[in-house]
Design goal:
CATH superfamily of chain A: Amino acid/polyamine transporter I
Number of domains of chain B: 3
Structural class of chain B: alpha+beta
Radius of gyration of chain A: 21 Å
Structural class of chain A: mainly alpha
CATH class of chain A: Mainly Alpha
CATH topology of chain A: Amino acid/polyamine transporter I
Number of domains of chain A: 1
Number of strands of chain B: 12
Oligomer: heterodimer
Largest sheet of chain B: 5 strands, antiparallel
Largest interface: A-B, 36 and 30 residues
Distance between the termini of chain A: 32 Å
Distance between the termini of chain B: 85 Å
Helix content of chain B: 40-55%
Strand content of chain B: 5-15%
CATH architecture of chain A: Up-down Bundle
Radius of gyration of chain B: 30 Å
Shape of chain B: elongated
Number of helices of chain A: 16
Number of strands of chain A: 0
Strand content of chain A: under 5%
Order of helices and strands of chain B: HHEEHHEHEEHEEHHEHEEHHHHHHHEEH
Chain lengths: 368, 504
């Protein structure tokens, strides 16, 4: 955002709630049970809470970073200020590549799910093309339109998908939850490590921070957004724990989708088709937000017009998504992105904060 | 450059037209009349367009007085005439341009003693000739409430508004649009309520219009709209007085144009198109219920046939066992894929609607019955479509008629077709793609610079009192905030919200 701070483009602080929540809950929520329950078994819900606490702290750190560097608009200028032009821009570019990977992973994984569950014969390129065309139209509208999509991406699925998840409770075995603390602390922390990946997405805050109208007020909403994500994950893991056997989950790729097969009403069967369709609204804002972040970053680093960079990014996404075909490759891509994301949020963000606060203190002493 | 200089010359030539030149030009037309007579040595000549003036006014107010009163006076000059003639709008001028425009608006020009430069212009226009005197607002009918609608005469329309808004703060700003039609356009707003910036935007956009003839207000609507390539109407256009008055009181701006019985109000949101004045005349519970029914109707109307296509083409597993029997039974004879079946019926319904709208009322009624019953039943028996689909399409058509604003119901008719195609290609995912596209599009739209999807996005919690539901009048004391009105309270909130204790 420019110095004059054109208020037309800024968003109200409470909308951060929707952006944070929307960017965190993606394809992961369909399949995260397997990874967490492998480590922490029926105590997985503790891992969810532990991971959530870590992310709360990380969001706090992101806000601290920006508060301690009030001159910086976003991560790009922050890098340039504290790490110099070359190193700073290099780091920014790496971050943008990570955002790009995020968009790619979400896009490709969702298309794979559609191919497996709905259209086994249809080409992946059709879906990625239409997805990316829609993304183009959205991102052209600017950040406000992207945030609007995030808003709908939270509200509509909340009314349509979430209620369906409660139907399986009819067959619940609540004793699955017992005994509590059956797993060691290390197991729970291992589960939390696997879980942290599911909270990824909030780090795009580093890019859109300057688009918030009163950033200090938005902090509260960002934390609420994360808390709401935790609530959703807790509900899902709780229902999965009481519905599935611990061993059984290890053999199901998308346990949440299987849960959605259970509800039965007189006029519709196979609810998972509805869930999968509505899931476009969950996936789509993440892709838009990531593409917007990349194009915004490119503008800040190389001063390329966003109108020009967005088509380039989208065609790149399209081409790359064509080459990732096999199930193993998609799994590898997922692993890669979550590993990078994990280190970005767990290592990089705190280190950056420590570095900035030391650099600031150092500067002060030098000035004195 | 030479071309521009040519135009410039032409323009400056026009400016220096003299009165005899003008008269010669006008005399080419056979309805340009000229009366000449002498009273007591004064030679009087009157020029006017026979087709524009009211002959009765000419006789009673002009000729009669000139022939009876003038002989009694000792001398007569042009400046005396305003006192002699009992006409409300009368002026003495020597400006040729004024004379030209006034003559073309139904004024008579009077010259005295061959004074070639100055003349008197007398208003003799017949205001209501050929215009209907009243409008029963049949296109936006409501059972309860006043049934007076706007007419083609702008004077009458302004009168109707002023009668209900008895406040000196009601401001009319007049302007002329159209190089040929010289249409009188009035921007109305309430000073002290309406945001000044909105008024400025409206006036600015109207001033920027470059056009020849304003046939109807809907032309202005298209020319001042924020996004001209959207199927969605950005401003409410209505023929009901209560709607316009309500909009003005809320803090919106209304645009009147002469010759059009429709009035544009804006900035509008999506929900304004689904509110009916009747919501406010019924108790709030009923009003809210019918509004919800209407919004459900819109969703059903746009999504029913796409869902049918998606389910029967790709997701037949979704049909429960008990329902599968009837569907198979009714579709077993149909040789087409669902998409062709749906397109056939949808287009039939569109044809019926279109034919019904173009034909005279009595024929249209018969056609509706013939079309609806005979074609529907026959196409099922001929195995062109299934019974189930017939019901779905008919209901969807019915639901789209519940929209109170005609422009919006046209939009709903239209957007169904792209969604059907999305559903054909990508099933349920395609429908959600289309919904996404709609949401993004609606999110990008603006009406006079204010967002279209308010109060949903941007979220305005307080504006929900009058959007999906219509709260009771003690709840709607506040004007909606997206209009940024200068005063928020419509009436005293404390008195409106006062609640008495039990048995008090």
């Amino acid at each position: 955002m420019n110095e004059q701070g054109n208020e037309r483009f800024l968003i109200s602080p409470f909308l951060v709630f929707f952006i944070i929540h929307c960017s965190q809950v993606g394809v992961g929520v369909l399949s995260f049970q397997r990874a967490v329950m492998k480590e922490a078994g029926h105590d997985s819900w503790m891992s969810v809470i532990v991971a959530s606490c870590v992310v709360h702290v990380l969001i706090w750190i992101v806000y601290k970073i920006f508060q301690s560097a009030p001159n910086a608009e976003d991560i790009v200028s922050l890098h340039a200020q504290y790490l110099g032009k070359w190193l700073g821009n290099l780091l920014s570019v790496l971050l943008l590549i990570y955002f790009f990977l995020l968009a790619l992973t979400v896009l490709r994984t969702y298309i794979e799910i559609i191919q497996v569950w709905m259209f086994s014969l249809i080409g992946a390129w059709q879906f990625s093309l239409i997805f990316l065309l829609l993304t183009y139209y959205t991102v052209l509208g600017g950040f406000r339109v992207v945030v609007g999509l995030c808003f709908w991406g939270v509200v509509i699925p909340l009314w349509v998908i979430l209620p369906m998840l409660f139907f399986p409770l009819e067959y619940a075995h609540y004793r699955n939850l017992l005994p509590i603390f059956d797993h060691s602390l290390i197991d729970i922390f291992r589960g939390a490590k696997a879980m942290t990946v599911q909270y990824l997405g909030f780090e795009m805050l580093l890019m859109y921070y300057s688009f918030l109208k009163h950033p200090e007020q938005s902090h509260k909403w960002a934390q609420w957004g994360n808390a709401f994500t935790t609530l959703i994950y807790l509900i899902v893991i709780f229902i999965s724990l009481v519905f599935y056997n611990e061993e059984q989950v290890q053999h199901i790729i998308w346990p949440t989708l299987t849960l959605a097969k259970i509800p039965e009403v007189p006029f519709i069967e196979r609810m998972e088709y509805i869930v999968l369709s509505i899931y476009v609204l969950v996936i789509f804002p993440i892709i838009c937000l990531a593409v917007w972040s990349v194009s915004r970053g490119a503008k800040r680093i190389f001063s390329i017009k966003q109108r020009k960079s967005v088509p380039i990014i989208l065609s790149l996404l399209f081409v790359v998504s064509l080459f990732i075909v096999q199930r193993e490759n998609i799994e590898k891509l997922n692993m890669l992105t979550s590993k990078i994301g994990f280190y970005v949020v767990i290592v990089y963000i705190p280190v950056l904060y420590i570095y900035i606060s030391i650099a600031k203190r150092f500067k002060k002493t030098v000035q004195q | 450059m030479s071309i521009f200089s040519f135009f410039k010359k032409n323009k400056s030539k026009e400016k220096t037209k003299t009165l005899p030149q003008l008269l010669n030009e006008l005399k080419q037309s056979s309805d340009f009349a000229n009366i000449q007579f002498e009273t007591r040595g004064n030679h009087i000549s009157i020029y006017y367009f026979d087709s524009l003036i009211d002959p009765k006014l000419l006789q009673q107010n002009v000729l009669c007085h000139l022939q009876n009163d003038v002989p009694g006076r000792s001398s007569l000059s042009l400046d005396d005439l305003p006192q002699i003639l009992p006409v409300q709008r009368i002026e003495v001028t020597d400006n040729v341009e004024t004379i030209e425009t006034k003559l073309l608006k139904g004024f008579a020009m009077l010259q005295l003693n061959e004074n070639k430069r100055r003349c008197v212009l007398i208003n003799l226009a017949s205001e209501n000739l050929g215009l209907r005197p009243n409008n029963d607002s049949e296109n936006e009918f409501s059972v309860v409430g006043p049934k007076v609608g706007f007419v083609e005469n702008i004077g009458t329309n302004l009168h109707l508004i002023r009668r209900q808004l008895v406040t000196p703060n009601l401001i009319f700003r007049e302007m002329t649009i159209g190089s040929m039609s010289k249409t009188k356009v009035v921007v109305a707003y309430i000073d002290g309520i309406t945001n000044e910036q909105t008024v400025q935007t409206v006036v600015q956009r109207l001033n920027d219009i470059e056009f020849d003839i304003v046939f109807d207000n809907s032309l202005l609507d298209q020319m001042i709209s924020d996004n001209s390539s959207s199927p969605f109407p950005l401003f409410v256009s209505t023929e009901r007085i209560d709607r316009v008055v309500y909009a003005l009181v809320e803090g919106q701006v209304a645009i009147f144009a002469d010759g059009s019985p429709y009035v544009i109000t804006g900035p509008s949101t999506l929900f304004h198109f689904f509110t009916s004045p009747e919501d406010y005349y019924l108790p709030w519970i009923l009003g809210s219920f019918f509004r919800l029914i209407r919004i459900f109707g819109v969703m059903f109307s746009t999504l029913a046939s796409p869902i049918y296509v998606a389910v029967l083409t790709y997701h037949y597993e979704m049909i429960p066992k008990d329902l599968l029997g009837p569907i198979i039974f009714s579709r077993s004879n149909v040789p087409f894929p669902p998409i062709l079946e749906v397109l056939f019926l949808e287009i039939t319904i569109e044809l019926l609607r279109e034919a019904g709208a173009r034909l005279p009322t009595k024929v249209a009624q018969t056609l509706g019955i013939v079309g609806g019953i005979v074609i529907g039943q026959a196409s099922v028996e001929a195995a062109l479509t299934s019974n189930v689909l017939l019901i779905i399409v008919a209901l969807a058509a019915l639901a789209s008629f519940t929209t109170p604003i005609f422009k919006m119901s046209n939009t709903i008719r239209f957007i169904r077709f792209p969604i059907i195609f999305f559903a054909t290609f990508w099933g349920g995912v395609g429908i959600v793609f289309a919904i996404c596209l709609l949401l993004i599009h609606l999110g990008r739209l603006q009406s006079f610079g204010s967002p279209y999807l308010v109060p949903f996005y941007p979220l305005r919690r307080k504006d929900f009192v009058d959007s999906l539901v219509r709260s009771s009048y003690s709840g709607t004391v506040r004007r909606p905030s997206y209009l940024r009105p200068r005063t928020f309270w419509r009436y005293d909130p404390k008195k409106a919200k006062q609640k008495k204790d039990i048995d008090e």
